């Protein structure tokens, strides 16, 4: 391994041309080739020497990245004056240029207008160094809090789902597989010994009691009536690092929920479920690819379904379709690969439906709207190839509805929405694709009924684009800030100025009390606590029925204690949580059985 | 010149040599050395023996040459001598250094041709037979005689550069052909030989040959020498050698190898350069390895290698079984080979000092602090532990007054009492009872956090930053306050009970304070045990002492002219140690502006420093991949511990002072028995530099923190139990390390993106970790 690299290290030297260029830059012309070669070797050696010293400073600076200051310090060791002007950490000011048979790297120094600098607003002051404490481990178990990395990193989830067959050495087999030494399987055993066996790893699909409680709370909050609680629950879904075990439940919950509620035309619930999908997609720690087969149909249903609400004329189901279409586009962007081809498959699905409504006048406007929305969210290319050619037909149909004498109110509204949707999406695409001038007649000829309206939209779009371009030009004068821009991770924004020690540990039994009280004070905290307690209890092996029972008992007891101790305000809480008692004991019963 | 000289000198003996050596007429310098007997007989009578001193030797040689009318050689010699006088790495002084050093007596004989000749006969009895069997001495003595040329130009002169690969290959073949049990031991010779042969080539301006030699054989070297090889590879010209530190290390220090007597004899047999009497003995070897080579070639080759071995290698011979490959690998890796065995023989008093007896006012304290429960129970164990501790004097402990320690102040006593009280509430850790870890992340540090320290009572955190600042935080609700100014202080009623409270300036209360004063990144930081002072060491070459009462700098200790990588207070305060790029560790006392002791010996930067819990010893880890233990009283180096394959960045002593742990850039933690100077464990698991190590308060668990963003916990009780030390291993230091890292690993805790650069166990055994969040 190292052998391949070493010869290179031995030979890498600066090109002699660089020596010539440098000599010329300080006024020494016609440097001899030999001197160049000698110089370049000497210079390369010195550079390597300095780099080696600079590495020392990097190591002692406890970094993995060499900075310019390390080089400065290394130069200082050798009694060489450091180089000035390279202080910034990210910015490398060299530009490359070639021409006249020569290639150069040069230091670009622009002239800067001082008045510009004076007039630009001051950059934000960088935040001061601060300390923040969190529990990395509690009695040997790492709590699943946002400050800690997710228990199962995304890569692991991915390998688990993409390579379910693990190489297992014979002899390492878990119990339950074929016993070795049995006469009947001797041939098999031989085969096994030859190579590694590929076996599916055992994975647990049971959720601990606490996880089940969490799941129940979250799903209830997500589809419940209290908007504040829902926001918190969605926030938890979007940020909590320990959800991967509950992911199959969530995806089933969503797909089943959509199936039921589409039939019942329950618009509100569908919206809530779509928001859950969004939250799941926002969670960076989840490997969602495994469950797309459940989620995508649900989302597509919400886009193209004929009817999503009880009163289509009043309810704004269009917003749901738009939202779901955006979700679809987002998932296409993030999950589409060459193997699963999500993007093209989705496009095909929409086109198929769309073709059907193109041919068939009787198709609902709602479905049509959904198709167009879904397609147009997929990008300008899709619009150009699939929607623009059909504008004429679509226009005629809209015209028929709006001009026609007897139409139901629902159709009219649908036609209006489709029209505005088409105008919105197509205008920007046409503005880019179509050359000037924008002639109304030409537009009418090309796009039929929608032509004139499109024309005015396109003109507007062009004006706006021009305005934006201008603004961009004006803002290019901003100067580079020497300090790197501040990056505060979203999870760490809640830092306290004073580094307090986190809450003291308490023995296991009292942990539940802590959880209960905190759940009373704030439900986000409760969620966090629940999640972390899930982890703790899992490793404490609370899964066996007896322990599970006692855990439930303990919880109840704890709740009682807090409730009675704190008096009335806690009572509703007690009632609420004690309603969880039933499922918990059910679970225990199930485990027993 | 050599040819002329040799030709004449050899005339007399040519007859008997010719029988054996066919090709000697080539007149190569080395032909000279191959005919030792002849020269000796010729030279003996002519020149009276010179003294050992170089100058005299030189004169004698000149005289001798003149007498033989070799004017040409005289001129050359003069010129060479004149040249060599000023350059310190020049041939003559080099060889002289090698000659006068305490090398096997043979090397010393290299001094001068004339005296040599006369001395040959004496050499055998005089030479200390302690290290080498008599045979060897005789052999090498004989071999050395004619090497006038070698004396004159150490590295240079060594003949045809084209032959180097052949020499090396020959040795390689030979070593590959020996018995398995010797092979591992003998192959230790490869690396130093390779390095010196390469340097010789470079020194003699055979640039291309050097490059080829390097490319051909660098791949054979053990992978842990890669760093050094990289440095070596960049050095391709003679001019580069001047001032290169690695180069100097190789030339000034001897590479230490440990070889069992058996193997050594085999290797000696393998050297036919020895005197005629040994000639027959070597036949077998020759049959094995050099069937295809001509005889004179063999001889020249072996001379070459033998010279290098004598000049630059120190071979530490022991009796007993040759070691296995894994045993050797465990111990090798440092810049200068292994530590000599006798380097680790000195007695180290690793025991703890007796704690002063302090009467703990148990009852009222308990009532204040604790509730009614458990009070009667707690008193008893406390008394017991107190009693047992104070009665027994550890036989391994140094005398209480071996080094003067500061007297305890009242506040120290109070702190001790607090400490004991906390200790009773300490959680007993073990594999089933892991500590909780509280992580302190430094946010918005812009990669600038370079050092962290906690006070022993975990009330303060200090951070050193690349922007030259030192910041101190309070992690308790008690805020940091400054003492009032002198004018205000004079107004205070000094008799009042709360005078200590009154002297503090409430207006300055804040959670953190910034200390300005350094002019470079702060690389080391350490609190004094009484929490009144803070030390910081920096790139600017100073160590500064800060007062945590006034939050100002009190002293700047100047002495290191180069970056100071680490500094550490003694566990008893007052003394502190610092070490840095200048390779010297200095021991200071806070009230002296000059160091009390300077510990020199490391061959590269001192990267970390640590006091032994009894304050009588100091451990330093270095970029030369060794750890040294120094006696504070005498200033001697009492232990050299080798085995790391990268610069050492963290050290930790177990609380009982018996064991030490060290972590390096190679991602391994090594465990050491301080008393025996032995490696007793190797903990593999980290993938990057280990910057933090700490034993729990009872020593059952070792926590390690690394650049790879993890904290790992190790079961040290088991690690130390698994190692059985019998007399033999203790005597020879060859230990079989059990491969049980995975069993010893108790837990791994990933941070999100925070390298762990400091660890600390609170008095109750809660683990605190610190690092800068690095998005």
UniProtKB/TrEMBL annotation, chain A:
Keywords attached to this entry: Nucleus, Transcription, Transcription regulation
Cellular component terms (Gene Ontology): SAGA complex; SLIK (SAGA-like) complex; transcription factor TFIID complex
Pfam families: TAF, TAF6_C
Broad class of the protein's primary localization: nucleus
Matching SMART domains: TAF (SM00803)
Compositional bias of kind Basic and acidic residues: 189-203
GO biological process, one term: RNA polymerase II preinitiation complex assembly
Domain TATA box binding protein associated factor (TAF) histone-like fold: 12-78
Region (Disordered): 142-203
InterPro entries: Histone-fold (IPR009072), TAF6 (IPR037796), TAF6_C (IPR011442), TAF6_C_sf (IPR046344), TAF_TATA-bd_Histone-like_dom (IPR004823)
Localization annotation: Nucleus
Keyword Nucleus tagged: yes
One of the record's GO molecular function terms: RNA polymerase II general transcription initiation factor activity
Protein family per UniProt: Belongs to the TAF6 family.
PANTHER family: TRANSCRIPTION INITIATION FACTOR TFIID SUBUNIT 6 (PTHR10221:SF9)
Protein name, as recorded: Transcription initiation factor TFIID subunit 6
Gene (name only): TAF6
From TrEMBL, chain B:
Biased composition (Low complexity): 30-52
Claim: Zinc-finger is one of the keywords in the record: no
Domain of life: Eukaryota
Subcellular location, record wording: Nucleus
Biased segments, Basic and acidic residues type: 12-21, 383-394
Single GO biological process annotation from the record: transcription initiation at RNA polymerase II promoter
Record GO terms (molecular function): RNA polymerase II general transcription initiation factor activity
Record SMART domains: WD40 (SM00320)
Keywords: Nucleus, Repeat, Transcription, Transcription regulation, WD repeat
Pfam family, any one: TFIID_NTD2
InterPro entries: LisH (IPR006594), TFIID_NTD2 (IPR007582), TFIID_NTD2_sf (IPR037264), WD40/YVTN_repeat-like_dom_sf (IPR015943), WD40_PAC1 (IPR020472), WD40_repeat_CS (IPR019775), WD40_repeat_dom_sf (IPR036322), WD40_rpt (IPR001680)
Compositional bias annotation for Gly residues: 98-110
Domain TFIID subunit TAF5 NTD2 positions: 160-265
SUPFAM superfamilies attached to this UniProt entry: Taf5 N-terminal domain-like, WD40 repeat-like
Gene3D superfamilies xrefs: TFIID subunit TAF5, NTD2 domain, YVTN repeat-like/Quinoprotein amine dehydrogenase
Region annotation Disordered: where it falls in the sequence: 1-54, 85-110, 360-414
Chain positions of WD repeats: 442-483, 515-550, 557-598, 599-640, 641-674, 683-715
Bias (Acidic residues): 360-371
GO cellular component: transcription factor TFIID complex
Family statement drawn from the similarity comment of this UniProt entry: Belongs to the WD repeat TAF5 family.
Protein name: Transcription initiation factor TFIID subunit 5
Organism: Oncorhynchus tshawytscha
Gene name per UniProt: TAF5
